[in-house]
Amino acid sequence: MIYRFKILLCCLCLLFIFMDDTRGQSSNFTPGGAHVLSMGSAGAMFTGIESIYTNPAGLTDLEKFGFDVSYDRRFNLNELATVSLAGAKKIGRNAIGVSVSRFGYSAYSENRAGLTYARKLFDKVSIGGSFHYLGYNIENYGSANRFTFDIGLQSEINENLSIGAYIFNPASISLTEEQDVPSRMSIGLRYTVSSKAKVYMDVSKTINRSPEFKFAVDYQVVEAFSLRGGANISQSSFHFGPAYHMKNGLSIIGGYSFDNRLGHSTGLSISYVR
Questions:
Q1: CA 17, CA 27: separation in Å to the nearest integer?
Q2: pLDDT tens, 164-211?
Q3: Rounded to an integer, what distance in angstroms lies between the CA atom of residue 66 and that of residue 41?
Q4: Is 155 exposed, middle or buried (CB count within 10 Å of its CB: 0-12, 13-18, 19+)?
Q5: Is residue 247 in a domain?
Q6: Torsions phi, psi of 153, nearest 5?
């Protein structure tokens, strides 16, 4: 009885999240754990290893290489959890990376695997893209496999302001006759207030859904510790997370969000860069 109740609750949560103007589309989970959760998904101007989840153009800011393990649990339900793994290496002006993510549980799951390439075209312009395998599985109904891609661009306007753009699945591929894998587009700004504070602003749009407006701040309290926070204004969700950065390149990041409709979510990311 408890297991059936959890399945029903998960289905209701997924239906509530994606019911607005999204009939005929599959869900579109966001990997990246606390990197994404603590910043309210304002990720079009992420750089380093975490950018592999939100805009691959940012991978060119890696010095040598990076690895990441991330986890988040939506609305305090194990059945709505996402696990993400990623690795990338810088080669001259280029960067290559791989990533895998899984959302859901045995009754319903979505899986994604990506191969990423990024290149710094000029000193202030970077471009990147990923080729993705998407796998969907519904217990007692079957599975489906699709392939798609994403592409991103980042450019430094001046020493304080940078702009980025990202699109996932621009072809909006079909999953079934009645369902599509939705396309998602983002435009973001990053403003460096000082050596310790950065402000992020994103506008994202999933096809057949209203635009989402996101705002986030990353503030370095001391050399090894920073605080992150943000809000998704369109969804009335609020986000927060601490980040601890060790001198050996290891970082541990926590993430928390509160959605006025569905409650609390938590996340954790552990990354290593050199």
A1: 9
A2: 999 999 987 888 777 888 899 999 999 999 999 999 999 999 988 899
A3: 21
A4: middle
A5: yes
A6: -140, 140
CATH code for the domain of 95: 2.40.160.40
Pairing of strands 142-156, 237-245: unpaired
In a domain, 8, yes or no: no
For the chain, list residues with pLDDT below 70.
1-28
Specify the pLDDT at position 1.
Answer: 45
Q: How many residues are recorded in the chain?
A: 274
CA dist 69 and 76 (Å) reads 19
List C-alpha distances in Å: 125 to 107, 118, 155, 245. Answer: 43, 11, 4, 27
Task: Judge contact between 103 and 136, C-beta under 8 A.
Answer: no
Match 């993400």 to its residue by tokens: 84
Helices (H), the chain: 2-18, 33-37
- SS3 assignment, position 247: coil
**Chain-centre distance for alpha carbon 96:** 18
Residue 238: domain span: 30-273
Contacts of residue 119, defined as CB under 8 A and 6 or more positions apart, other chains included, come to 60, 93, 94, 95, 126, 127, 128
| 139, two tokens | 């217990």
Domain count, the chain: 1
Could you tell me if residue 23 is inside a domain?
no
User: What is the number of H-type helices and E-type strands within the chain?
Assistant: 2, 14
Instruction: Give the predicted TM-score (pTM) of the model.
Output: 0.88
C-alpha–C-alpha distance, residues 231 and 259, integer Å: 10
243: left (phi over 0), alpha (psi -120 to 50) or beta: beta
Residue 147 lies in a domain: yes
